[in-house]
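User: Predict the complex with S-adenosyl-L-homocysteine.
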Amino acid sequence: MYNTTEFKNIIASIRNKQDITKEQLEYILNYKDDPDYLYQKASEVAQRIYNKEVYLRGLIEFTNYCRNDCYYCGIRCSNFYADRYRMSKEDILACCKKGYELGFRTFVLQGGEDNYYNDDMICDIVRQIKQENPGCAVTLSIGEKSHESYLEYFNAGADRYLLRHETANKEHYEKLHPHTLSCDNRKKCLKDLKEIGYQVGCGIMVGTPHQTVENIYEDICFMKELKPHMIGIGPFIPHKDTPFANEPMGSVELTLKLLSILRLIFPDVLLPATTALGTADVSGREKGILAGANVLMPNLSPVDVRDKYLLYDGKICTGEESAECVECLKRRVENIGYHLSNSRGDHPDFCK
Ligand code: SAH
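Assistant: Here is the predicted structure with S-adenosyl-L-homocysteine placed in the model:
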């Protein structure tokens, strides 16, 4: 029943219809032979739109304080072993300045949900980053906020917002999060962000405990409805001081197949080859690009805090300086015949 011809036919169908059925998803994910053909077709689609360019985002993990207690996450509030830190506005601006000199035109401010930074502080930081670094884009990734707060950040100049929905299935959501968090609110936040006018990123972890192919199908359906500009996916990797410490890691191959499927369904979406993928496999990020990803998000945080933003065990690049990371990525990308772009890398809908 599983054969190459059928595999190829399904891939052609997904690409032509920019849609997938649950049966097709099951077929692709359960297909045991070499998936290379899928990766090739997806990277062809990416190249048609983005050539062989890879966009860079400078990631600044500015706080690892978090009020939430997600079962998978190493910086959850009940992990008392986490060594907590917060970066000052000056430290954040210094990171951006260094990044700007290295050629970065997008800065992603990511953190736990840390109410120490109130809306005025976030707006002030966003404004100043935009002012000091002409032509740059600012992405926020600071979790669930009110419509009002999202609007304030947007008016202060924030261009994009990353908020992975984690899973679109309510029951599955509840197996990953305490009852203080809800799937409905997460989805509502994403709708608010879209409505305000951000370039919006959603996404999932691949291989979280209790995840089924059916859940992944629901994730794709949710994405089709939301029409995100970016989709961040990476394998789930356990963290030793969380309730999921003994759960198995998500599969790299499954992640790559999903990257390809997402590229076929959403031809122009911005799709990062994530740090988690690079952690799960030494050449994970290269493999991700060859499977259709077109974004890399190296860390720009100062070296003294890097090894503290540990969402999962074994995270790569926690000892390097930003400049070293860029050199390393440049080499890696060029080795597979791609090159780093020095543009802001907006979604095509936002390019003037
Ligand atoms: N507080 C922000 C940022 C969260 S960290 C927010 O709520 O959006 C960014 C992403 O890292 C999360 O959305 C989650 O998908 C991922 N992540 C967290 N723990 C992880 C783990 N153990 N393995 C892999 N990815 C993880």
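The CA atoms of residues 210 and 338 lie 36 Å apart.
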